[in-house]
Amino acid sequence: MSHEHRSLEALSKHGANASGWGLRYPGLVMGKGGKNEVKEFTGMWGLKPDADLVAFTDTLSRDVPVWGGPGKTFSEATTMLGLIRTARWFVARTQDFDGYTLFFISQFDGTLDKYFDDFVLNGKENLTKIWGQCVGCPSGPDATARDVVEYIARGQIKTLACYDVFPSLSLGQIYKAADWYEKTQRFQRAVAKGESKLEDAVNSFFGELAESYKQVPSGAMIDTEVARQWQYEDVAARVSK
Question: What SS3 state is found at 240?
Fold first, then answer.
């Protein structure tokens, strides 16, 4: 039996519908027995011959307020979700689609199903600005955000290995730890300088600890030179040297 046949047989036994979104795989799960687990998703979709990569990157730009309402850029809206740890898009030429292919990789807190449920909240307009550049993406007035997300889910490929530095800590826990560290540092410095009575400093410190932490702003790095710089064309020649 060939390796390919064994792989298809294993996929059949696993089930072609691993979740409510028709995912073939549940995704890798990273955790160390703590209160949190990190999931991942990797997918690929054929790009249209006239795909506009400049418009694509403009959609994800920090300077374009289109996600989540007025004044919300892609990175701001993603930060507010408090789930996505990293996400990246890149393009390569593959034989699978006989041309250029869009790849998307993401790691996040929570389940894979919940991740795709949240994708629907991005709205059809925002989703099609990215995946609408791909062949077969639902479009037209009758297409919905859910239709687009189902299309995205069908592009899933299996990740062989993945690494996360703090899989047992959720983003909320990381934010809280950073928040408490900064507040504790300010308290220590205030006490060392004798800026106020110790009792007042302690009361102020505990009052600050009781306040909710502020999310650390995340950032989206966009390659605005994508249409003019190389991406992968010379990689094969370089690695074969």
Answer: coil
Please tell me the distance from the alpha carbon of residue 89 to that of residue 41, in angstroms, as a whole number: 12
3-state secondary structure labels for all residues of 33-44: CCCCCEEEEEEE
Cβ neighbors of 155 (< 8 A, separation 6 or more) are: 43, 44, 45, 104
Alpha-carbon 79 to chain mean position: 10
Amino acid type, 111: T
- If DSSP codes are grouped into helix, strand and coil, which group holds residue 49? coil
Instruction: Return d(Cα 70, Cα 72) in angstroms, integer.
Output: 6
pLDDT value at position 68? Answer: 56
Query: What is the number of alpha carbons within 13 Å of residue 163 lying toward its C-beta?
Result: 1
Distance of CA 186 to the CA centre of its chain: 33
Share of the chain above pLDDT 90, in %: 24
**What is the reported pLDDT for 19?**
61
Closest-CA residue to 128 (of 153, 104, 147): 147
Closest CA to 119 of 162, 160, 87, 159: 87
Type of residue found at 96: D
Token pair, residue 85, equals 């740890």
Which pTM value belongs to this model?
A: 0.78
CA distances for 204 relative to 75, 173, 179, 185, 192, angstroms: 33, 22, 15, 13, 15
Give the per-residue pLDDT at 64: 56
Report residues of the chain scoring pLDDT below 50. 1-18
Q: How far, in Å, CA of 168 to CA of 152, rounded?
A: 27
The DSSP 8-state label assigned to residue 58 in this structure reads: H
In the block, tokens 């302690």 appear at 202
